[in-house]
Amino acid sequence: MATAFAIPLVILLSQVGAEPASDGVKSAEGNALKRWAEIYSREAAAYELSLGRADAAKLTLHTLPVLQYSNPVRPTDQHGAVYLWTLDGRPEAIGSMWSSVDPKDARQRAMSHEFQSLSLAPLESRHARRIGRKGPVPDWKANEPGIALRPLTDAPAPGKTVTQRLRQMRQLAAGFSASITASDVEVASDLRLLPQPLLRYSSESAGVIDGALFAFVLATDPECLLLIELREAADGPVWNYAAARFTNRPLKLMKGEQEMWSCAKAEDYVGNRPYFLYLGVGRHDELE
C-alpha cells in the first residue's frame, strides 16, 4: 500500500510585500497564473518517464504542480511550475517547466525544461524530438541513481503517528542549510527552506514507512532538494536523508558546520546524468 499527497504551493511573488492590488489587477494576475499553469501542465504531460530496467516500470505524473514559482533574483523574469513523477507513491523524478522573457523579443517567452532523478535506479524519458539552443536535444536516460540515501544517526526515535512524524521530518529538514556556491556566472547565495514539504508519502514496495520531499529556494524557485525518509531496516526503522540538485549551479548542503553533500556546476544537454536541463525548447507569446 502506498500513500502520497501534495498541497500545491501557488505563490504569486508580485503580491509579496507589495501594496494591495486592485480587483482588476488581481483578476489579471490570476488569469495569467492560470494560463501559464495550463501551458506548463501540457509541457509536463508530454513526457513519459519510466525506470530504466528490465520491467520498465512506468512512472505516474501528478497532473497538478506541487509548486508554482517565480524568480526575480535572476534576470529575464523567470517563472515556472514543478511536477512530480511517482512509483507506488514514492517520488522518483521531479521536473520544472519554466519560461523567461526572450532577450531578442520581449513579446515572447522562451520555454525550458529541467529534470532531476530522485530514484535509486536508472531512469529514462520518452518524448517528441526537440530542438534547443544547441540543436537537437538528446533523450534523458540517466544511467545511474539520482540520489544516495544516508542514515541520520542523530535523529529521534520515530513518532507513532503521522502527525508526530511530520513534525519530526520538518525539524530534521530545518537542521540543514543549503547555498549556491560562487561560480563564473553567479555569486554565492544562501537558500531558504520551504517549511511545507512538496510531497508527503509512503511506499510499501520501496520500504518507505514515511517520507517528505523538501525544497530550498531562491526567491520561490527550488534550487536544492532534500528527501527525509523513514525506512525499514534489519534493526528497526531508520531515518535517512538524501540531497539532489535542481539547478545547474554548484550547491552545498550543510548540517551545522559539517558539509553533508555538494555538487559542481552541471553540464546542460548531457542526457546520461541524473540532472538534465533543456534550454530554449519552445516559445510562447507573452500575451497569448
How does this model look, in words?
With 288 residues, this protein is mainly β. Helix content is 12%, strand content 45%. The radius of gyration is 19 Å and the shape is globular.
Compact summary:
The chain is 12% helix and 45% strand. It is mainly β and 288 residues long. Strands 1, 13, 16, 17, 18, 19 and 20 form a seven-stranded antiparallel sheet that branches. Strands 2, 4, 5, 6, 7, 8 and 23 form a seven-stranded mixed sheet that branches.
Task: Break the fold down into its secondary structure elements and pairings.
Elements: E1 2-5, E2 9-10, H1 23-45, E3 48-51, E4 60-61, E5 67-71, E6 78-87, E7 90-102, E8 105-117, E9 123-126, E10 131-132, E11 135-136, E12 141-142, E13 150-151, H2 162-174, E14 176-180, E15 189-190, E16 192-193, E17 199-203, E18 208-218, E19 221-231, E20 238-245, E21 251-255, E22 258-263, E23 275-285
Residue share in helices?
10-25%
Q: Provide the succession of SSEs.
A: EEHEEEEEEEEEEEHEEEEEEEEEE
Q: How does the overall form come out from the CA principal axes?
A: globular
Which ranges are low-confidence, i.e. pLDDT below 50, for 5 or more consecutive residues? 7-21
Strand proportion? over 45%
Q: With helices defined by DSSP (H or I, 4 residues minimum), what is the helix count?
A: 2
Rounded mean pLDDT is 86
C-alpha Rg (nearest Å): 19 Å
Structural class determined from secondary elements? mainly beta
Termini separation comes to 43 Å
Major sheet characteristics: 7 strands, antiparallel
Number of separate strands = 23
